[in-house]
Specification:
- The protein is α/β, with parallel strands linked by helices and 284 residues long.
- It is globular.
- The relative contact order is 0.19.
- This is Haloacid dehalogenase.
- InterPro entries: HAD-like_sf, HAD-SF_hydro_IIA, HAD-SF_hydro_IIA_hyp3, HAD_sf.
């Protein structure tokens, strides 16, 4: 399939759908404010008996993500559960007790280690790296960390990436995320473990939680993913075997000007395999 299917509302797509796995940043909010129509759409789907699991590459535990959502005005009734890449990273740290880790990321992500007894150490003494982001994502890019990554590669340290996103929206700007540093490290020959979309573990965890809510194992044919990133949301859904609704107002918005006029070759170049449907912004 190389044609694009545009829809105006979520309700056009959810007949026969039991579970929605929705991205957060770029779909539900932009880091500064929530999108009321998107929240209403997810809430209405739940009112019809559907289950909504928010899946996010946020490098923090789910309860920290929930607190941020509340501050931005996203009601708890919008969703049933949250799965974060931070949760999966915490499992890795917990499975390596006593091992020294070098933490690369801003102080605001400190909750990722809460209750784990993590042993933090300088790069020169660490056994592995956990990257939750850049120290100052307002001014820095991955290139600012090339020297550090070269030193890490010399020591053959594994880098655990707690947020595979390359960039994310903050208001009307794009800022770099942990994924940008992780990709740089991989390019220079370093070993990287990615947690979060598009990698399988976060989808498996989300499906398990959805199954608990529904009271039965979930048929992937009855699942719809929602996201705004080709690299993480669309690729992750396709590789996991579920349909995807692609929201174009997010990080790719400039690329999608005139999207409805693309020829099949351009569609393939942009998407690879196109999503089930596209919508500018999530609405019911």
């Amino acid at each position: 399939m190389t044609t694009l299917h545009f829809v105006e509302s979520l309700r056009e797509l959810v007949t026969g759908v039991d579970v929605v796995l929705s991205d957060i940043w770029g779909v539900v909010h932009n880091g500064l404010e929530s999108f009321p129509e998107a929240c209403e759409a997810l809430h209405n789907f739940r009112q019809q008996g559907g289950t909504v699991v928010l899946i996010t590459n946020a490098p923090r535990p789910a309860d920290s993500v929930q607190r941020q959502l509340r501050k931005l005005g996203v009601a708890d009734e919008t969703y049933d559960a949250i799965v974060s890449s931070g949760d999966l990273t915490r499992l890795y740290v917990a499975d390596h007790p006593g091992r020294k880790l070098f933490w690369l990321g801003p102080e605001r992500d400190g909750s990722i280690y809460r209750g784990l007894g993590a042993v933090l150490a300088p790069l020169e003494e660490a056994d592995y790296i956990v990257c939750t982001g850049l120290y100052d994502d307002e001014t820095e890019s991955a290139e600012d960390y090339r020297g550090m990554m070269l030193k890490a590669r010399e020591r053959k340290l594994t880098l655990v990436c707690a947020n595979p996103d390359i960039v994310v929206e903050r208001g009307d700007r794009l800022i770099y995320c942990a994924g940008a540093i992780a990709e740089l490290y991989r390019e220079i020959g370093g070993e990287v473990i990615f947690y979060g979309k598009p990698h399988r573990p976060i989808y498996e965890r989300a499906m398990a939680l959805a199954g608990e809510r529904q009271g039965h194992q979930i048929d992937r044919r009855k699942v719809l993913a929602i996201g705004d990133s080709v690299r993480t949301d669309l690729t992750g859904a396709r590789e996991f075997g579920i349909d995807c609704l692609f929201v174009t107002r997010g990080i790719h918005s400039e690329e999608f000007e005139g999207l409805d006029q693309l020829d099949p070759a351009s569609v393939l170049e942009l998407f690879g395999h196109p999503p089930k449907a596209l919508m500018r912004e999530l609405k019911w």
